[in-house]
């Protein structure tokens, strides 16, 4: 009964934000939409398609062709229901996350119940908390009101987590291919998924070929629909080479505004590699815990991608309650919470002071984005170390003495 109420409440919040003048002005900033997720750019692309002009000839449109065709269909035939479409996508994502949490909690409790170590418990509140965090998080709600296409990008990612928890590997890999088609960076999730597929006794090679084949099929379908391959430069090339240095909540724009041009290639490669390099080490260190590794990589991906928005933080923040058992072992929960709260308040303020009032400069806004990304790093580091401490306690007990002397676990 609670889930329908949450979904209705989330829909009403989004409708209210869409019709509120204050939040309409807030939505125009780059906090909630970026060059790759801006609805204004989508409408421009739709207009160009209507004029038989390739939307990828200029530097305006960076959506993949298939989703651009979907948006064009909506704009040309059902323009009045576009806001309802984005709300529906958010509600569907919340439902999938709730189902993911249901299955995850059941999976965690099942061994203890089967062994008789614990009696069957009453339904956990975690799934409803997950849905509520996604539906009522300002990051996702305001982004939906801004018609940011990042909301649609979260849908296949949520399905990846659901399929991974339920061990429906083929669905998981196909969903990952769709997610990579939309954004490219989710390819980092392939490492823990292949490890999990191998642990389940399936062929890693076939799994990798399936994921690559689905992605290649989407690219071929895009090229057929568009008539050429020009979209590759404007989508994946744009993401990797970071040609647009519009301010956002990421780390790229400020550094490369100040960068000498002949150093750009080196430092772009250095920055981009951070989004991918942690996949294999984390998979090897936390083997047997693919969902945890996927969560950590999701946070790192949002931190180090070239055009992030706070909408993407809404997905991993919604999944965070799944690791409630790690809370006693975490150290920086209060600090991270304060960081996030401060950023949510200060980011719109600094943006307004810089862009609209002219009484601040880029340093003010970038200081907030640094705090935001530091919070994400603290979050993922604390979570992973909490898991290591919990594993140690389960293996060696909770004694805090070594050779009769007081001791404590520290991060080395």
TrEMBL record:
The keyword DNA damage does not apply. GO terms for cellular component: GPI-anchor transamidase complex. It comes from the Eukaryota. InterPro entries: PIG-U. The keyword Thylakoid does not apply. Its main location: endoplasmic reticulum. One of its GO terms (biological process) is attachment of GPI anchor to protein. It is a multi-pass membrane protein. PANTHER family: GPI TRANSAMIDASE COMPONENT PIG-U (PTHR13121), PHOSPHATIDYLINOSITOL GLYCAN ANCHOR BIOSYNTHESIS CLASS U PROTEIN (PTHR13121:SF0). This is Phosphatidylinositol glycan anchor biosynthesis class U protein. It comes from Amphibalanus amphitrite. The gene is PIGU_0.
């Amino acid at each position: 009964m609670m889930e329908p109420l949450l979904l209705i409440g989330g829909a009403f919040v989004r409708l209210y934000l869409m019709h509120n003048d204050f939040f309409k002005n807030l939505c125009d900033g780059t906090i909630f939409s970026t060059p790759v997720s801006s609805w204004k750019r989508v409408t421009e692309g739709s207009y160009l398609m209507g004029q038989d002009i390739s939307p990828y000839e200029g530097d305006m449109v960076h959506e993949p062709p298939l989703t651009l065709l979907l948006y064009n269909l909506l704009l040309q035939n059902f323009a009045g229901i576009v806001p309802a479409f984005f709300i529906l996508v958010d509600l569907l994502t919340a439902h999938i996350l709730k189902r993911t949490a249901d299955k995850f909690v059941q999976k965690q409790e099942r061994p203890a119940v089967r062994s008789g170590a614990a009696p069957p418990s009453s339904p956990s509140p975690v799934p409803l908390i997950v849905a509520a965090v996604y539906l009522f998080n300002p990051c996702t709600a305001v982004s939906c009101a801004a018609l940011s296409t990042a909301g649609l990008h979260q849908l296949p990612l949520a399905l990846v987590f659901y399929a991974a928890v339920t061990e429906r590997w083929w669905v998981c890999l196909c969903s990952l291919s769709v997610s990579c088609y939309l954004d490219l960076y989710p390819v980092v999730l392939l490492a823990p998924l292949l490890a999990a597929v191998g642990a389940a006794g399936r062929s890693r090679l076939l799994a990798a070929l399936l994921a690559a084949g689905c992605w290649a099929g989407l690219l071929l379908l895009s090229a057929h629909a568009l008539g050429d391959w020009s979209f590759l430069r404007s989508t994946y090339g744009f993401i990797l080479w970071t040609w647009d240095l519009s301010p956002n909540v990421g780390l790229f724009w400020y550094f490369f505004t100040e960068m000498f041009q002949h150093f750009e290639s080196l430092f772009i490669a250095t920055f981009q590699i951070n989004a991918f390099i942690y996949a294999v080490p984390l998979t090897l260190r936390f083997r047997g815990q693919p969902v945890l590794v996927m969560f950590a990589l999701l946070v790192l991906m949002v931190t180090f991608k070239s055009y992030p928005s706070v909408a993407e933080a809404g997905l991993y923040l919604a999944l965070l309650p799944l690791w409630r058992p790690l809370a006693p072992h975490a150290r920086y929960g209060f600090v991270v919470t304060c960081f996030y709260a401060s950023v949510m308040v200060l980011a719109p303020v600094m943006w307004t002071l810089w862009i609209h009032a002219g009484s601040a400069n880029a340093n003010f806004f970038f200081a907030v984005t640094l705090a935001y990304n530091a919070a994400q790093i603290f979050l993922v580091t604390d979570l992973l170390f909490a898991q290591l401490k919990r594993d140690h306690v389960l293996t060696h007990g909770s004694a805090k003495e070594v050779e009769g002397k007081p001791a404590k676990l520290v991060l080395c």
